C-alpha cells in the first residue's frame, strides 16, 4: 500500500517564505539596478565602466531568471497544497 503525507501547515509555511523572499530579493535587485543606472548616466565613464556595466547587467538578468524560477517553485508548491486539500476533502 502506498503511503502519502503532506503536512499542509509546514508546506504552506515554506511556500509563503519562498514567495516573500523572492519578492524581497526582487525589490533589492531593482533598487540596486537604479543605483547602477545612476552611475551609468555619467558618474562613471570609460572602458572599465563599460565592462562593469556589461557584467552587472548579465548578473542582474541571471538573478532575475533565478528569482522567476523560485517563484515558479513556490507556485508549484501552492498547487500541490491545493490538490492535496481537494483530494482530502473528497476522501472525507
Note the main attributes of this structure.
single chain; 92 residues; mainly alpha
Q: Helix count?
A: 2
Order of helices and strands: HH
* Strand fraction: under 5%
What separation lies between the terminal Cα atoms?
19 Å
Shape descriptor reads rod-shaped
Major sheet? none
Number of strands: 0
As a whole number of angstroms, the C-alpha radius of gyration is: 21 Å
Q: Which class of secondary structure composition applies to the elements?
A: mainly alpha
What does it look like?
This protein has 92 residues and is mainly α. It has a domain at 15-24 and 55-92. The protein contains two helices and no strands. The protein has helices at residues 8-43, 47-91. It is rod-shaped, with a radius of gyration of 21 Å.
Give a topology summary.
Elements: H1 8-43, H2 47-91
Helix pairs in contact: 1-2
Brief overview:
The protein is mainly alpha-helical and 92 residues long. The protein has two helices and no strands.
